[in-house]
Amino acid sequence: MRGSTVVVTGGTRGVGAGIARAFAEAGARVLACARRPPEHQVDGVEFTAVDLRDPPAVRAFFAGLPRLDVLVNNAGGTPYRRLADADAERHAKVIELNLITPLTASLAAYEHLRHSRGSIVMVGSVSGGRPSPGSAAYGAAKAGLANLAASMAVEWAPEIRVNTLVAGMVHTGSSHLHYGGPDGIAAVSRTVPLGRLALPADVGAAALFLASDAAAYISGASLHVHGGGERPAFLDAATAGPDVPDAPTAGKEG
User: What CA–CA distance (Å, rounded) separates 30 from 72?
Assistant: First the structure.
């Protein structure tokens, strides 16, 4: 990635910092933009303060860049909030951050990326492909993000490649807030087929691949980085074993 310029939105902590670090270690010039500076600066990563929910500020930021080769739309997130516990306006802010913000940044970066024949990596979530109780607006936004990326990949080809990195559960500095401390993290990790949560570096490596020449013919794709996904619940409830002659095979239930 030497000679390339990469922008990582929300690239100051957690998954975003892992992505920014991966590109910096690959030799790119990396710009991380967010509202607040990082608590711990990542070597080789420059920080620029940008409120990504302010379209004029976003357009001004991208207009000021001399070039751009990769945009990683990582900024996003949500608090735990059941649908009936907030009004529609509150949920709409979650959708704005996780869907409208990546659209705004992508449009602002379009001319740069078209000129460099660059790529966009959307950071999606497994929440966009399954029920997401407690974060329904977030899941809906991530589902929309994957569709937006697929449409962009068609409209903006062949100059710009667009892909979605579908992240599963990631072990970050705030994991204890979601899973309840070391015991909770260990318990949740056991539900992942690979036996652990992802690290930010795992997500960073996948983002680097999607943006690299190794993925030159990959566009409009969704790459799942989730350690094998979730074990089907029926496997824990089923009593029939493999030695039972009448046990239905996968795909032939009923």
Answer: 11
